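Bench notes, bay 3.
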Amino acid sequence: MKKRVCIAAMILVLVFFDRGGSSQGLGLGLTCNPLDLLLCLPAILTPGVPTSFCCNRVTDLLSCLCGILKDPKYRPYRQYLNVSNAKKVVGSCGIALPDCLI
């Protein structure tokens, strides 16, 4: 019984840290998943200023943002998360633009 609980816990941990995204460039157990940027949706869809929570998340995912923008598997998200909107949010957060957004 203990063995099954331990295996189930390990599976949950793996699923938690890899929710279907690709782990590009972070090396901290974080994944690159556009859904992690849901906190930024109001700033993406409106001219409003991003929240500090959004800016912190963008900072966390900055190293893989270009991959998210280029990876074909994320094409369904591009009506919202595209280069123009990424520039707007990253710039509004006062974060230096990565090369793919320049």
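Next record in the batch:
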Amino acid sequence: MDRTSICPKEPIFLHPIITNPKNNGGVLHPQTHGNNNYDNNNSSASRSASDSGDAAGDGGCRWASKLLRDCAAAMSEKDSAKIHHLLWMLNELSSPYGDSDQKLASYFLQALFCKATDSGRRCYKTLISVAEKTHSFDSVRKLTLKFQEATPWTTFGHVASNGAMLEALEGETRIHVIDISNTACTQWPTLLEALATRNNDETPRLKLTVVVTTTVAKSVMKEISPRMEKFARLMGVPFEFNVITGLNRLSELTKEGLGVLEDEAVAVNCIGALRRVGIEERNSFIQTIKSLNPKVFTIVEEEADFTSSRGDFVKCFEECLRFYTTYFDMLEESFGPTSNEKLMLERECSRSIVRVLACDDDDDEDDREMDDVDRRETGRQWAERLSSAAGSGFKSVGYSDDVIDDVRALLKRYKAGWSVVLPTAGEDDQLGVYLAWKDEPVVWASVWKP
């Protein structure tokens, strides 16, 4: 097998979300995001930025984090006068077109406003509706390619997972990959290419079953399907492509519904999908995966804990702020100062921030859909859950040196600041590997077998 072939061609499909919550009950209305035009830098928030350091009281160094933390604390203490004052201040200083502090303030202001006015679920549903209406295959493809060119945020997981699958499925003639992810098939062209160039007499038959985990991804799957089939023919790989879109919850998956046959070597790939499983359903979902008897189970998740602290607003807010501060910093250094793609990626975060901070998890639990769950866990938390989930029987498998070499080769394509964090001496391989930005782990990848 050609080791260079597992580096992916495209990254994950992300999407722009442009909306603003409505005023409700006297609290100041956050500034409108407007369109993708950087001429809006002349907004009042941008003009106020020069005074932001004095407003925050820390000389202009990360003023947004301080104001946002103060506002979250005021909400926890139910100090309505302080909440109103801080929301007003954030509204004056924030701007999605300004510097990194102004942007951070802008997107978290929306969530804090929704929290203060109990409008989180209404705002969240609006965000989903807008995303569905504004998506097209061409716009998603363009954003995806730009994100891939600028960062390894998603291609890291593609390379690690594809490498692990190719090694686990070596010599198999009938392969069934079950893709439970939010990558919309951007991972698979390089896997097809690698299968086509194997040093075997017979090219294996590949069945790819894609479980769509986000509503917005459904709109592009009709375009993706014929392209995948065409590429498989070009590579000379016998190929069957199936899409499952009718699920409301991942817990509804069954072996029969996935069409798993006895003579197939099964690989299950989850990238950014486990966090969409309801917290109380995660152990049973792992049992469902175990029932498929996969040869390999690959997992990639972003490194954040929005689960254990969900009952403590301030702690959850701190973790959410930490994660997205790092993410926005990464975007700021990876894209040009006037990149519309960067703005769209930043706006894409608004839905998750509102969902985590402003929506009550206890409301309408029976009606909850996959798009309505966004409770990340850290790699260590996922590893503990996988190894102990009601006798699931999964065991962690360390990545081979070849796969790690491929991942390191991938990172050399990008700007400085990216690194791979491996388990230290004495640590269990179940901790997997991490993609780090400026030494801060941001994405976790691991491999498991029954």
